[in-house]
């Protein structure tokens, strides 16, 4: 890696004059002075054997990708069993999060539940209080949905300033999976919701229970009781064998290891919707029931954990955008701190309430940049700056920080988490 | 409802419902019969809770503070406790009964829980030291911050401000200046080389940009 930008005027001129994005690379190859032994010498892997097919019945990533793992930040919480870790979004592409490195958030640890021991109860204001086994649940009509699960606290430690170094840490309390399961409305129909029933309370098998109240309209709309994620059973740490999927809503409500669904005429106002997941405002009062996660985005590369080491020339800016209020319709990118914006490309599908990938290809001249992304969703909502949010909410909201992230790209290609004004 | 019942599952028995449905709602729905006084609560708290939350519910080390912080909610660093922040006493009973002590939850009887709840009210200066909390007088307790919450109003206070065609050019009054740098805090886990943990590996030692002749 170079310490200094290594750009001579003739190369700059060459790049500016070149219409082809690949011209710089071609020039490099054309000017190699000595033959590359990786080409001219026969390598072991081109001569001998690789691993046999029985080496890994269930594979793990190649060792060279060892940096693509969940990471935690010890000082954020007092106990590692009521804590958080972070998805390595700086190193991922596309939209589907590999389950093995998808973030975890537990309140009493990740419990070990079997399908044999699993029970689900529906009770309260229903005609027929019921108990289901896992086998029962597998007989209901199945549905598929892809959705992001974003912790309400994602970016929460950035409310007061720029604190952690890397989008894994500042935006990585998120994963996006393709779920298969049954609709909560179909389970509720089995029990028969009474007209007095207005709220559904869902709690888990774990000691923390994580009980949350959900209004009946949402429960009957798109909430899923999921068994499969990204093609296979849920991981233990993600609620095996059954979790709630609540598209667009704060991750805390995605109750894991669910054991009971109760119908009540009022909200329970449990600990996770009074003490926690309420958002303190400047007048000392607090918002409650801030369920939806608003439109948000982040540039995942370049970013503090993904510096630019290839020098000037063609540069891929890649990132994620998402909205709990529907589909992302546009992502704008700025390289000058937000003075000038250009629409990025949406790559692949922009599904409602799901992670969406954007790309912006540019020609970096080697100078410093402030790079930002700004999501727009189908309601017309435009992702705000952190200052715009703080002007309304102050700095003690704790949750729901969907502000525009600024990365300072230094001339040496290193990237910093900063605020600008 | 979209579907007719399929006839799956079986009727839940009343003892099964009683075992699992221990939720207590703000109006007292779900409260078991029982009682406990402050003095008993002090003893139960000392035996089961004080090793993390302190003898006076003030919190040890970085464990949650359960008492104090009155009138701090507009401070730069608010102290949000049962007394200063929580809106309903039902949540205290419900959460303690179901999920505490941390690591050995569901070991407290209803009477233990009434007593601990009474002790927490006392620790927060809400009742006198001879107070007895029962399922009968439970809902007469009004918590100090009962009116401190309102439902999500982003649709009124934020969405209109943040909706509309955004600026694309000449959006800033001047050249942006850095006001905060995470690097100054040095609180992010690091790799052996001092870079943020998980930084992508270096793929080449070659000069980044070969000279173009």
Automatic annotation (TrEMBL), chain A:
Parts of the chain that traverse the membrane: none
- Cofactor dependence: Mo-molybdopterin
Q: Which GO biological process annotations does it have?
A: sulfur compound metabolic process
Boundaries of each Moybdenum cofactor oxidoreductase dimerisation domain copy?
287-406
| Keyword Transmembrane helix in annotation | no
Arranged from A to Z, the UniProt key words for this protein are:
Metal-binding, Molybdenum, Oxidoreductase, Signal
State its Enzyme Commission number(s).
1.8.2.1
Cited PROSITE patterns: TAT
GO MF term list: heme binding; molybdenum ion binding; molybdopterin cofactor binding; sulfite dehydrogenase activity; sulfite oxidase activity
Keyword Hydrolase attached:
no
Domain Oxidoreductase molybdopterin-binding, chain residue ranges per copy:
113-269
The leader peptide range reads 1-32
PANTHER family membership: SULFITE OXIDASE, MITOCHONDRIAL (PTHR19372:SF7), SULFITE REDUCTASE (PTHR19372)
Q: What is the name listed in the Swiss-Prot or TrEMBL entry for this protein?
A: Sulfite dehydrogenase
Native organism: Pseudotabrizicola alkalilacus
Lineage of the native species?
Bacteria, Pseudomonadati, Pseudomonadota, Alphaproteobacteria, Rhodobacterales
